[in-house]
Fold this protein.
Amino acid sequence: MNLFLLKLFLFFLFTFNVFGTPIEVITIGQNSGIELKTLMHGNQVYCSTDDISRILKCRLYHSEKRDKTVLYIEDRRIKVSAQSTFVLVDDYVYQMPFPSISKATDIYLPASGFFNILKSSVFPGLNYDPKKQILEVDIKGFNINRVEIDEKANGTILYIKTRKEFPEGHVSAFKHKNGWFYVTVKGGIIDSEKVENTYTRGNVRKVTADQLSESAQLAFKLGSDIEGYELYQTDNPSEIVITLRAPIENNSYIKSMKNRWFLDTIVLDAGHGGKDGGTQGKRGTKEK
């Protein structure tokens, strides 16, 4: 009987949901002591979607009938369902290590797993310390959103879509001997998920993105060598444009146009006739 009671106690201890210590929220640049309501499930800290909406100042929609919640952060849509480990960010599916929990009209999410998903996909200025239970919120969004690639007769054009024009000297690029073309943007905050899902074409075989501490780096795997490149920025639309020039010997169209206009005979016509013999040389030789 004692063993049964012990098992029953342990079951309730690790499965019963109790409200836990709130997560301290620090908003960078503001003197605000905000707290995020939590729920303890076993040894896992869960946070309230209602409170997340309040902290991040984003719109929330909850369907009691379907037990689903949608958070709208800027132009992104984050869907979560009760008792599920999956999070849908627009059309991309992410998975948390533990399932969500439904409580009344709220859905609680495993804090570490959900904040990591938000940071990598939507909110780069989010930093959560699970040991100290501190959430730092830096209100900054992605300024490098996506990449579009266009194929032309004389090469491939990269359109790096941005939210602002970067200062002169903050955007650099180079072709490495390993076959990758690198672009570094100082002060860039990159939406890695969208960039790495770029539809590749032309001379580009793959696109990767890395967020560094003070810059963002994009890497393009090239299918063949390039003769050179041009780089410039535009403000309407806001984008970094890079033209990767293909060598002429690799371009059949340019080669055919060049061959069409190739001249192997040169004819000189002085343009004079009849009585007009043109000018005379030093020894009296007429031009024509």
